[in-house]
Design goal:
The protein has about 210 residues and is mostly helical. The protein has one domain (about 10-209): Methane Monooxygenase Hydroxylase, Chain G, domain 1, CATH 1.20.58. The chain is about 80% helix and about 0% strand. The chain contains six helices and no strands. Helix 2 (about 40-65) packs antiparallel against helix 3 and helix 4 (about 110-130) packs parallel to helix 6. The chain is elongated.
């Protein structure tokens, strides 16, 4: 790490960890909705609460950036990481909203499995985030980023399978095809966005490890 006369503001780490915890909770709420599809309106309200909390975290990080002379991570990486976390939570909320908008009666097996993968990705991110606090711990980051990448590949394969099954089952039902294609797209986007977070981790390791 470069020599610094003034200490870097460590509150950034607190907010990153709050953001990753909020992401994990949002993913768990979506998973619970998919597995136990009852009172969806109420459950999606809780997901929306998580999305608002995510927006608050991003605001606090950006506000801290404007007030801080020396940051523990590059300001660009700080912004990229905060937005990457927020993007996943936003996509989770959008998924829940589509379930309501399209009046889904029951999630498909593939949607449930995709939500499960998303929770696993979020859990890896939550576990990895505290490692940013100490440059000596950054070499442990790779096991988490590798697992997120593996899960994202698993999610891609599941997404393709979901589309194949959708073509078979709903090729003559435009509405059913359209709604599930949109939902699968969002679930796949969410796992891709988790990989974006892992990419930021790798960038930080390269710069600071």
């Amino acid at each position: 790490m470069p020599f610094q006369i003034l200490p870097a503001e460590t509150k950034f780490y607190d907010w990153f960890e709050k953001g990753s915890t909020n992401l994990f909770e949002a993913a768990r709420l979506l998973q619970d909705l998919m597995h136990n599809y009852e009172r969806p309106e109420t459950k999606i309200m809780h997901i929306t609460d998580a999305e608002r909390q995510g927006d608050f975290v991003v605001h606090e990080i950006h506000d801290l950036l404007h007030k801080t002379l020396i940051t523990p991570l590059d300001p660009e990486d700080t912004q990229t990481l905060s937005h990457a976390i927020d993007n996943v939570v936003d996509t989770i909320e959008q998924t829940g909203i589509l379930l309501l908008l399209y009046k889904v009666e029951k999630p498909t097996e593939e949607a449930v499995e995709m939500a499960d993968i998303l929770v696993k990705c979020a859990e890896q991110i939550k576990q990895a985030m505290p490692l940013l606090r100490d440059s000596k711990s950054l070499d442990q980051m790779s096991k988490y980023t590798i697992e997120v990448n593996r899960l994202e590949n698993e999610g891609d394969a599941l997404y393709r399978r979901a589309l194949e099954n959708l073509v078979e089952s709903a090729r003559n039902d435009w509405f059913d095809f359209t709604r599930w294609k949109a939902i699968y797209d969002l679930l796949e986007d969410a796992t891709d966005q988790c990989e974006d977070i892992a990419d930021v981790f790798q960038t930080v390791v390269l710069k600071n490890g």
